[in-house]
Amino acid sequence: MRLQDKVCLITGAGSGIGKAMALRFAREGATVVIADQDGQAAEAVCALVKQNGGRAQPIEADVTVALEVQAMVRATVDTFGSLDVLVNQAGIIQVGDIIDLDEQEWDRVVAVNLKGVYLACKYGLRAMLAQGGGVIINTASISGLVGIPKQPAYCASKGGVIALTRALAVDYADRNIRVNCIAPGPIDTPWTENVLRAPGDPASEYRWIVMTQPLKRLGTPDEVAAAAAYLASDDAAYITGAVLTIDGGMTAR
Ligand SMILES: NC(=O)c1ccc[n+]([C@@H]2O[C@H](COP(=O)([O-])OP(=O)(O)OC[C@H]3O[C@@H](n4cnc5c(N)ncnc54)[C@H](O)[C@@H]3O)[C@@H](O)[C@H]2O)c1
What we know:
By secondary structure, the chain is an alpha/beta fold. The protein has a single domain (7-185, 220-246), classed as NAD(P)-binding Rossmann-like Domain (Rossmann fold), CATH 3.40.50.720. Helices cover 47% and strands 15% of the residues. It contains 8 helices and 7 strands, in the order βαβαβαβαβαβαααβ. Strands 3-2-1-4-5-6-7 form a 7-stranded parallel sheet, sandwiched between helices. The longest helix has 29 residues, at 103-131. It binds nicotinamide-adenine-dinucleotide. Residues 11-12, 14-18, 36-38, 41, 62-64, 89-92, 112, 116, 139, 141, 184, 186-187, 189-192 line the site of nicotinamide-adenine-dinucleotide.
C-alpha cells in the first residue's frame, strides 16, 4: 500500500500499460483518475478498478488539446483535493521510413507523445506547486535512447520526453517535485500486437529485435506498472531525473 491516499492521474489509461498502471496503483491504495481520449475505454477501466475494490474516476481528455488537459487537471484537484502523482502515458506510434513520412503524421506523433507531456506537466506542475509537492512519471521508450528501425518520429518524440524529464527534474527538485521517466522495451499490449502482426515487411526488423533481446520475450504491462509504482512511491524519494529502462536487457548491449 505504498500509494495509500495518493491521488494519481494517468493519461492513456484506457488500454495497455496505462490500464495496468491504474489497476496496480489502485491496489497500492491510490485513488486513480483514468484519463483517455477514448472515454468509453476510460470508463471500462474505471469499472474494473472499482470491481477490484479500488477508487477511480474516468475522464475523457485528448492530451494534445490544452483546454482539455487543463480541465483534466482541474477536475482531478476539484474532485479529490490534490494531484499527487501524474503519469504521462498516452502515446501513439508510426512505423515507416522517414522519406515516406508526411508532415501530418510527424506532427501528430510529436503532438501526442511530446506536446501532450509538455501540456500535462505545465498544468500538473501548477497544481503540485500549490500543494507543496508531487511526482511526475513520463513514459518514454527505449526508442528515445537507441535507434529503432523505421520509427523516426516516434524515436524523436521519445528522445524529447527524456530531455524534458531531465529539464523538469532540475527545475523542480527544490520544490519537492520529482520527475522521472520510464523507458519500456517491447511490451505485450494491443499496440505491440498490431506492430508485430503488421503485414509485409515494415515490422520485420522490430520482430527480429524482440527475438534477439537478452530475455527473449515481450514484457508485460504489469511489469511496467510495477516499475512505475516504485517511482511513484516514497521508496524512490532520492530518485529524480532518471530514465528507468524496462526492456528485458535490450539496451544493455
Ligand atoms: N507497448 C510497447 O511496447 C511500448 C514500448 C515503449 C513505450 N510504450 C509507451 O507506452 C505508452 C502506452 O503504450 P501502450 O502499449 O499501452 O499503448 P495502447 O495503444 O494500448 O494505449 C495507449 C492509450 O493512449 C490513448 N491515447 C492515444 N492518444 C491519446 C491522446 N491524444 N490523448 C489521450 N489519450 C490518448 C489511447 O486511446 C490508448 O488508450 C505509450 O506512450 C508508448 O509510447 C509502449
